[in-house]
Write a structure and sequence with these properties.
Layout (H helix, E strand, L loop, with lengths): L1 E5 L14 H14 L3 E7 L7 E6 L13 H14 L6 E4 L16 E4 L9 H7 L5 E3 L13 E4 L19 E7 L6 H11 L3 E6 L5 H8 L8 E3 L5 H9 L1 E6 L9 H8 L4 E4 L4 H4 L6 E4 L2 H9 L6 H11 L2 H17 L1 H8 L1
Parallel strand pairs: 1-2, 1-4, 2-3, 4-5, 5-6, 6-7, 8-9, 8-11, 9-10, 11-12, 12-13
Helix pairs in contact: 1-11, 4-9
């Protein structure tokens, strides 16, 4: 099968530091190549991929030192090139939200659009009502709730290369880990409170976006002056393996409708259990009492941390291999691609 993967241009594919969508596009493209498919990746030129790369920009936008940049212009130029070459592919798989809809209406039945973000935003519903002919993929069932009427072809959970983050049978750190981004919806303050209540050290490896600098400065930075708390900043994949692998648990104390939560399966790959708040996709990702604990409040999280010795790190890794590898993800997508070629997407459009 000839498959085009169209990635956002904000981060490298995969990202050099923090980043979710581009990371999944990288893993999916490589896994599809490994399964024998002919894959072309439209992305920034600093991508590392087994696919055939069509560079749409000299480098990813976020780490580009140029002071003035136009993300809209870059993405429109890339979509122009995808449209020019669209006839070369059996399937066009987009990961750029709905930006491509006005330009690919005639080819919609050969497209698949994975939505990677939250969908409870003003204006989204009107747009998805306007373009019902585009088959969509969610990354969790919960993510779909604001747009139940949309043309959903399936749900495909994320996956990681099986050997990217190695299994760690005996962690040496004895700390709680918080990994990702400092923002109000990610609730690092809850993670800090857990450290205080359990007496376990907390290590925070997270980036601070420009939009969240005031929150970090005013709400979180004053809490870091504590011997139990260590703030590390952003880390790359090499640092992630050690950071997660040596943790007693990953804490995922979110307070928003998380579409998936990639860091949870990154921890599982290392055999590290997850203690996560019951928000968004969390109950779909965590097998309660097997790969971690889903909790409703801080008291529940404290109780869950006390139960961590009950969990088998080997079983957590086995669950990761069964549910969340890149190969598993790619095979699910291949089933959807085959459905498109059979006309399933057109049938969905007619009944939308």
């Amino acid at each position: 099968m000839k498959i085009a993967q169209i990635a956002p241009l904000y981060e490298a594919v995969p990202p050099k530091l923090y980043g979710g969508t581009e990371r999944i596009v990288a893993y999916l493209a490589d896994a599809l190549v490994d399964l024998g498919h002919d894959v072309t990746l439209f992305a920034a030129a600093d991508a590392r991929t087994h696919a055939t790369l069509v560079p749409a920009r000299d480098q990813a936008i976020r780490l580009d030192p140029a002071p003035l940049k136009s993300d809209l212009a870059a993405h429109l130029s890339m979509l122009h090139e995808v449209r020019r070459r669209a006839g070369e592919f059996d399937v066009l798989h987009f990961h750029v939200d709905l930006l491509h809809f006005p330009f690919f209406e005639e080819a919609a039945s050969r497209t698949l659009t994975t939505l990677h973000g939250r969908l409870d935003l003003k204006d989204l519903a009107d747009a998805y009502w306007r373009w019902p002919q585009f088959p969509l993929v969610s990354i969790s069932n919960h993510q779909r709730r604001p747009l139940r009427f949309a043309t959903w072809l399936g749900t495909v959970q994320h996956g990681l290369p099986q050997h990217l983050l190695p299994f760690k049978a005996v962690p040496s750190g004895g700390y709680l880990a918080f990994l990702g981004r400092i923002s109000p919806e990610k609730r690092p303050d809850r993670a800090i409170a857990l450290a205080h209540r359990t007496g376990l050290p907390l290590r925070i490896a997270a980036k601070v976006d420009h939009a969240d600098r005031h929150y970090f400065r005013d709400e979180i930075e004053p809490l870091l002056d504590d011997p139990l708390i260590e703030y590390i900043g952003e880390i790359d994949d090499a640092g992630k393996a050690e950071f997660l692998g040596n943790a007693a648990a990953l804490v995922f104390p979110i307070d928003w409708p998380e579409p998936f939560g990639l860091v949870m399966i990154e921890a599982m790959s290392c055999g590290t259990p997850v203690v996560a708040w019951r928000c968004g996709s969390v109950p779909e990702v965590i097998d309660q009492g097997v790969t971690g604990f889903v909790v409703d409040d801080e008291d529940g999280a404290v109780a869950a941390i006390a139960r961590l010795p009950e969990l088998s790190r080997a079983r957590i890794r086995q669950t990761f291999e069964r549910r969340f590898t890149a190969e598993v993800m790619a095979r699910h997508y291949v089933e959807l691609y085959e459905g498109l070629l059979r006309g399933d997407g057109e049938a969905l459009r007619r009944t939308a």
